[in-house]
Every structure is written in structure tokens, then in C-alpha cells.
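User: Structure please.
Assistant: Input sequence and predicted structure:
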Amino acid sequence: MAQGDGAAGGFEAPAREAMEFDMVVVGAGPAGLASAIRLKQLRPDLAVVVLEKGAEVGSHVLSGVVVDPAGLDALLPDWRTHDDRPLTVEVSDDRFYVLGPAGGLRLPNALMPKLMSNHGNFVGSLANVARYLGRRAEALGVDIYPGFAAVEVLYGSRGEVVGVASGDMGVGRDGAVTDGYTRGMELRAKYVLVAEGARGSLAKTLIRRFALDAGRDPQKYGIGLKELWEVPAETHRAGLVQHSFGWPLGNRTGGGSFMYGMEDNLVSVGFVVHLNYENPTLSPFDEFQRFKTHPMMADTLKGGRRIAYGARAITEGGWQSVPKLSFPGGALVGCAAGFVNVPRIKGSHNAILSGMMAAEHAVEALDAGRANDELGSYEAAWRSSAIGTDLRRVRNVKPLWSRFGTMPGVALGGLDMWCQQLFGGSPFGTLSHGKPDHATLKRLDEVKPIAYPKPDGVLSFDKLSSVYLSGTNHEENQPAHLVLADPSLPIARNLPLYGEPARLYCPAGVYEVVYGDEAKKSEPRFQINAGNCVHCKTCDIKDPSQNITWIPPEGGGGPNYPNM
């Protein structure tokens, strides 16, 4: 019996049906779909399947996005000639600002290291890039199963990975089966490529089981929040790429912001907060809402209409934090491995390149008659590849920012990148990231509480109206997908020490502390509104007690991002 089989609410679950493939890919983002496409390009006869927990390809994909086309060019050299190409707006104006409360200072482009230039890149929607890659994959014969969440890794007799299992459908909140019950499937393969994105549940399990992070720095994360606006034609500038840092964040809180001019009078505006922040009263969502009231943003957004919202975690550890990529029976690709270049705010090119690389090494193994062993050549190759070059030259930017604060850290990071560009090395060597993000919060009595203004409904909004725009939907009668190891800790520990920061770091209003009747001396209780969850996984990362585990809900649930 595979792990996870057994009783559900007293019901003995039947054995799963099994399907055999040459390759199983978990996740239909850019990395997973690039893997699938490259596998079929090299070996058209291979049976390749991609599992996607979202209701459709692209529905859970969210990014800024300014795309470095290097990955797409390598994977599909003809993509620019297609009528349905996902990226049509090339960067025409590249700006970088330091913000104060009322204005901003533009940094001259000449001061920026060459690698920070966005000219030649494209502004668009990463969700639409994924949809395009999905169409190209299916044209090559790849089977894509949207609405199927991979919830379990299957192991063989030697402990090797032999496949994954999708989740059961139609299980009630109490664990009992309903009339709509359908048993999950086992998808077995010679190799499994895990491309779940940042902080994926299977990747987390595999990293722990095979100690893939041994000898590495802890992975670092940010939370990225984004809105899509339709603005008046007179304030819209297609191809404008504007990045900024500073206000409203303090010097000890890392993060930054962006505004990109897309096609059809659309503007992508977003905000990133590094999750090693210290003040437990900080709310990334409210910092984002406050940011949009800055004159440099408000002048573009006023008179516009907010049409979409989303949030997700971003890997930020880079070179020092990438875990071992290969394990017996498979490999990690894309953001599951942590290939985001933080100062460039880009990862999709590396995600595609890593998917291609993993596919190429898997095909070599299959051609040699191997199966379910370790793809050690993939692990050995990445640091000397274009991915490694991209990450190595920015490896100290995030540690310098964390160590010295925003202004000195950004200046030192710029110096470090110039040294890499001019001399091929860094005066700092390779710096460590230090603590994991969950260990950086100070106690309430050590900080000044942050007070946020009420949303005005014009430029700033509340969480619930924002979640509505994300298209988030979950089957209400299903087991909780946000699991507390100890249900007492939020009130007994997190509330007195930190004010229970989950109610603030969550960008979707999932967590609340509900106070009872004071006259009756009712105790406060911790409430989880799981139906609001946009699958950003910030709670799994930032909870100071490491008490919350995010697991995939029933397949097809979660956000439904359009053009994000």
C-alpha cells in the first residue's frame, strides 16, 4: 500500500489506479512545460505527462513580469513569429527610482551594472507565457492534466522516487467521502521532475527526505503582491519599466516595487517585501496599498480600474541557497530549486533553462537504459551553465541588503555587481544569508507598531475585495489545506509574543484572531478562513513557530489569474 492509502473518516480507501509514463512533470509553469517540451523535442516517442493543480494552465501563475527572452529563444527559437505569441511589448524605457514620501530620485542608467538593463526584454503576462507553452507542449504530444494536484511522492523498494499520486476528490471536511468521491491516481515514471514553484509541498518533502539542503544556506523568500490596472490612454506608456525601492518601507525592511506598461492600456503594478523583515506588525499587503498612493504611482493609476490581484512567495536565496537538484528518481527545476535573480527581479528565463537542462540529462539517462536513479550530471552541470553565471554574479546583493539595510546595502550591492562585471570577482567573496526568514521577527515589546490608513477605495483597497479579484475559489466541504501542528500555539505563543503575525503577513485575510465576549471572559481564538487562500505559501515560510503547513487543496481550487 502506498503512503497515504487507508481510512478516510472510517472509510477504507480503495487502491489507486496506476498509469505508467516515461516522465512525470509536476507543475505546468514555465519550468515544467519547458521540461516537457524539451523531452519531446529530443525523444518524440517518450510518454510525458504534466500535472497541474490549477483549474487550467496559467491559472496559478503570477509574476511581474519583465521577461528576459533567453529561455524562450533557446527552447522555441520560432516563438516570435507566431501570431499567438505571448509577449509583444518590448521594453522601451527603463527607469530606477529611490522613493521618499512625496517624490523620487531617479538613478542614472549609466550607474547601473549592465546586467540590470531591461532593454531587449519584454513586458507581459507570465500566465499567458505558460498558456502558450502549454499549447506548444500539447502539439508535441505531451499529456497535460489541469485540476490534478500532486499530493504525494511514491517511493520504490530502495527508497527511490517512482512517481507521484494525485489527490482524492470528493472528501468532506470531516474526512468522510461524499457522493462525488473519486480516488486519486498513481502516475508512475522512470523519472519525476518537480516544478511546483516556490515552497512547493512535494519539493519541501523531497528536500527534507534526501537532505538536499545539506551544506547550503537556508532558502530566503519574499512575498510579491501584484495588481493589474486598466488606465486611461493618456497616462499609459506601453513598454515603460519602472522599478523603485525605499518608501514606504523603512531602511531595515528589504523590498521594492515595480510598474510596467503592458498592451491595451494595461499596467502591472506590484510590491515585494523580503520575508526576513523584523517588525511583526508589518503587513506586506498594506505596505503595497500605501505604495500606490505615492504621487509617482497615483498619477498613472488615477482614473483607472483595478481588474486583477494576486500574491505569491518568491525564492530569493540564489546561488548560496539552491539545494542539491537531483535525488534518486528525479530532480528539482525552476523556482522549486530557487533560480530567481533577485536584483534583476527575474526568474522565468532560468526556470525555462533549468527545465530544458533537466530534460536533456534525463534523456541521456533514458538512452543509456537507466531509470529511477539519480540524475547527478544535472546537479553537476548547473553552476557552470548560464543559470549559474546569472546567479553567481549577484550572489552578494541580498546578503548585503539584509546585513546593512536598504540604502547602504543597495549601494554595496551595486559596487559588488560592478566588480563582478569589470574584474570577474567580488571583494566580499561569498556572503552567507544567516537566519531563515521565520527566525527574524522581533517581539512586540521590541518594535514600534505600524499603523496603516484605511483604504480609500480608489487607489488602496481591503483584502477581501482583492481576493475577489483573484478569482479564488475552493470547494467548501473539503479537508483543511492549512494544517496546524499544534492548534494551541497561535494563541498561546504567537499572540502574546508577536501579536499573531499571520493575520498581517497573509495577503488574503485567511488568518484572524477572534475575540470573544469580554463580559463572559471568553478566550480569543484563532480562525482560519481557508477559502480565501491564494496559495502564496507565506504562512508556511514566515510563521515564527513553524506551525503552519500548506498542502495542496482539492485539484482545481485556488486563484484563477487572468493575464497575471
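Residues 348-367 form the longest helix (20 residues).
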